[in-house]
Amino acid sequence: MRKIYLILIMTSLYFNFSCSSDLDSDSTNGTSMGSNIQEITQAKQFYSDNGGAFKFRLYYFPPSEGSTTNNNNQAAEINKILDYNGIISVIAKYTLFAQSIQSYGAVVNCQGDFISPQTSTAVGLQSQYFNDDFEVLANNNLVSYSHSNSSFEGNYGYAGASYHNHTLNTHNGPTSASTNQGYMGQFNNQFFMLSMGLNSNYGHPMLYNNYNPNTGAWSGTAVSQMDWVQGVMTNLPTTNHASKAGNTDKIFWAWLSFNTTTDNGKINIINYNGSAFSAVTSLDGIGSVGTGLSMEYKHSIHLCKNPNNLSNPYMVVRRYNTDVLDIYKFTGTAIEVVKTGISLPVMIPITSGTTRVYKEIVFSGSSIYLITGKDKYLYKLSGNTFVVDKPNLTQANETISALESTSNGILVSIVKSILSTPQPKMVSDVVLIPN
Fold it and tell me: How wide is the angle at C-alpha 308 spanned by C-alphas 31 and 435, nearest 5°?
């Protein structure tokens, strides 16, 4: 019994050490020290020689200046990169192999050549929130929205939602009720939910923006611009996705619909600024949006940030049960076709089912990139498929684990092993691929 108590105490002490701002390696989050560390200097040169620009490195335990000794077999693996108005933050998993300790965390507003859990802007995360939808607020608070169904985004858009502030470590925010669920968001601490109304919510697209924290109940109104008449097969909605797509003052809501049969498909988009909805913009004649009249067997749709103009997001449609993508762009007044009939690269293995899985797709300048999160390749659209771009940017046994688009290019996270002594370590390098 005493052994169990000792392990718990040591784990607690370790976590507190990792998140303490008083134990920073230096006051500039590693800027001055990092510039003198040989392994970072070597990394900068390597990426520069292979088409990238080193931004920073994530360590579990940062090295000391002038020291090449590493006594802990450790790993720091970035899972997500977030860019909000030029402020770069990361979500990561940390592992200490000798003690089988795994923890999760974030670093907000990454500065300097290296960051770690000891950085002053580091934030601890509970494991159940690791794959949430994260957002960095104007006050640099890291918040997230949890959903009860991890695969609902871009599909039916109907799942339980809850709000969490990780910087303040508070988890008592708004929670959806069983009869009104959807995409949750906030503007200036005013919360709302967008629900297409499939199978609930009176069967209509709904805005819920009146939350009672005492009862946990929401009230709202139908979104008349998006509404449809039950029993009439006109503008019948199928799958949908809502996302701020990098914006701070509005959220976009995109969905697929059809008239009479699913072969008469339409793609639609609207936005909400916290007080009012815009008009609906639609594009008819996009062909099939799936099969059957039920909510199953339909194409999915995802909104993606356009770093060149945040008011003009992209929409990626994946045809049901295929490896084929269609890409559209909202211009502000219309939806235009970017490219249709794009095939995922055959290099991506089919690991389960019959289709290939990619982790992230991003847009930068006139280029489109994707990663699987499982291999070392950065895939770039060329013609009607994706090909490996900058193959020398990564080496054998490395992994590109995350992507983010910025106005200057794309940020990639490269998880790599360093053969330090006496123990090896895994780090994550964030590298910019310029436009």
Answer: 60
